[in-house]
Design brief:
mainly alpha; 2 domains; 74% helix; flat
Amino acid sequence: MVSVGHARRRLESLLNMNFNITSRKGREFAQKIGLAVGSFMLGWILTFVGFVPNVAQTPRSLLGIKIVFSLLPGAIGLLSGLAIIFYRLDDRTVKTMELELAAAKETPAPA
């Protein structure tokens, strides 16, 4: 059984939502949102191509399934690769980031 105090602390932490994407909670939240959006999009695309569960699929739905599970991930991978290629990260940029992070650590967080 969950105590009232525990439930209240849990509710307060959910309402505060004071985390950033670099924290463990932030990463988990972003991952859950990504999984939800991806699942929704997959369901929508399969509906769009005419997929019907537990029956023989039409040629259109089979083509759609092949595209969703092969060409679409490939295209997203290529776009990700292009983003990495054009992302400028040289020694000067890294040094600037390190200095900014060090300065942020020294600055006290607002209360």
